[in-house]
Amino acid sequence: MFFQTDHLYHIYNQGNNRQKIFFSRNNYLFFLKKIQTYILPYSDLLAWCLMPNHFHLMVYVRSEGLIQRNGKIRSFNDSIGIMLRSYARAVNKEVVRTGCLFREETKAACLTEPKQIKNSWYNNGGIKEVILENPDVGYPNICFNYILLNPVRAGLVHSPQDWEFSSFSEFIGEKLTTMLNPGKIAEFELKFLQLDGVTKSHPVRRDIINRPKKKNSISPKFC
Known about the structure:
single chain, 27% helix, alpha+beta, 5 helices, four-stranded antiparallel beta sheet, 8 strands, 19% strand, Alpha-Beta Plaits
């Protein structure tokens, strides 16, 4: 993966052979803590969704690399790899399994770079990707909605707010604490739209844009 600052990216991976990567509620919560540790120092989070066998993150990259305590620079790409490897080791030990948990290659699609975007819909290893001609407005918004609607499209729930492990409830202001950056969501004019008649439109809550951020308390080859 290659990241550039000041761009939006859709980061995603799934279980090896499309197997489950979350085996309990605690696994989901543990992964969210990993996101806080390994994703948020480098980027602003605009949307996320954890599904039983895959995950989606929509981020705005602030830094391609950060200096660690040992004085060495760790890239955002390496940080993602450490996140997935450490999660996989812990889960493998917990459920007494061996082998790779995630697919070897984590994908990162740039949503704001026209050269990296095609005009098509296609499936990438079972994870549908949606690409539009207008990369600066169209694709970021469609990708944003696709991530939030993923549990509904998969038939896990009837409404996106019924799925505990996505950013939808944070986005509409139902949760006081959030990992999201509402200011960036507003800057890119990301809105929840009525798609395929699934649910009604939910514009971003303007009253949370300037709300002071609170600390969250959320109780590969990536093998």
